[in-house]
Structure prediction request, 440 residues.
Amino acid sequence: MSPLPRIAPPQSDHVAPSLHPIDGYELTGIVRTYDRDQRIFSEGDSADRIYKVVRGAVRCLRILSDGRRQISDFLLPGDLFGLEAGHDRQATAEAVCDCAIIVARLSRMSAEPEFAGMASRLWRCVLRDLQRTRDHLLTLGRRTASERIASFLIDMGQRLGDRDKVELPMSRQDMADYLGLTIETVSRTLAQLEARGLIEARCSRSIVLRNTPALRRLCE
Amino acid sequence: MSPLPRIAPPQSDHVAPSLHPIDGYELTGIVRTYDRDQRIFSEGDSADRIYKVVRGAVRCLRILSDGRRQISDFLLPGDLFGLEAGHDRQATAEAVCDCAIIVARLSRMSAEPEFAGMASRLWRCVLRDLQRTRDHLLTLGRRTASERIASFLIDMGQRLGDRDKVELPMSRQDMADYLGLTIETVSRTLAQLEARGLIEARCSRSIVLRNTPALRRLCE
DNA sequence: CGGGGCGTTGAATCCCGTCAACGTCCGTGG
DNA sequence: CCACGGACGTTGACGGGATTCAACGCCCCG
Prediction:
């Protein structure tokens, strides 16, 4: 359980001066920057925009009324997010650290000439999302704490580029809320993996994977 | 953990004699019937077909090498399934009970005139899937056994039509593997909910929701 | 120097898993 | 007809892994 005060302050965004046909990013929109813990959208908001991370990291989450929090995904540079089944947001998105994010209006997009190509990209993006979420489901439903941590580190290594040296953008609380654990268990499990020689913690957010095959075997 | 022998026997399908433009089902294909526990597709298969449940129920699942099993979703009459991010199946689908299912080839579909309308239906279907899976994620990551059971019963009641009288098509093992619990915990938790007067078990698979508001409050 | 955010560690507790026994239902076969 | 066996579900006793509660260390900044 995690009944916590950590609230994202609603505050004004910094808006880049001009529209951006983003190079290689396949999404046309305004670039905004968000401060750490700043809300990007909230449950109940109108879902008329989609987003793409340029720099930083984003968490997408839902909260139970007593404060228990579940992060459904972390979005890293290059990741698209914000597509919704209905008209309203069912989840909240917040900046994990200082971020730059492209914001595009859905209504505008469908009017643009490149929309057909864009739609097929969105399609693949959503299907990949679904697959990732199902993997995550397996982790939360059936894996132990060490297996969760191992799969998380491997996944982060792959997505952040440097597969054996992971620079985590998020706090222990974020990791815990993503993995369905508590910060204490995350901390203890990392210590235990280090004692077994599988990882090495340079500092709390910089972790070296010392034995990736063994980590991989931990979660099959 | 659930290391189990329950294996779906690969066996020949019963094939309906003719192609079917299904009335109100918005999917054109062959109707097949599957026996209880029969495999519909397996991890690694080519993902060139999509499916729609006509009668019965289907489970979609992944298995760890030691036999631990996580069911990502149950598919009920009217539900579409089998869309995949890549070319191969990442999960397995099996009949929960005797089923009738429409099977459609994706390659054929994209050639048909109604494909444009169909595509937008698929789009909404996948987005709804994603939302459901994220809900499920919250359940597995942050809810207690009674909260999981309560949300499961409410969900099943809604999807099966009769909101207060739930006729479960699946075994305790299936429920457990869906909810990230064991059969014993499922059984005990149901007994406890009954003792509190929230539900009434006519028989093991027929459950009456005696106090839906209280059940709803259990999972917010 | 003091205080707050963040992370780690220890001790006690608890919820759920494990192991085991038992009951019920049902189809088969004597 | 009943005996038998297997699938399925329930219940009890016990143990363990994760949570809870608490204290402490580190670092940064006012």
In short: Residues 1-25 of chain A have pLDDT under 50 and may be disordered. Residues 171-173, 183-184, 186-188, 190-191, 204 of chain A lie near DNA strand C (CB under 10 Å from a C1').
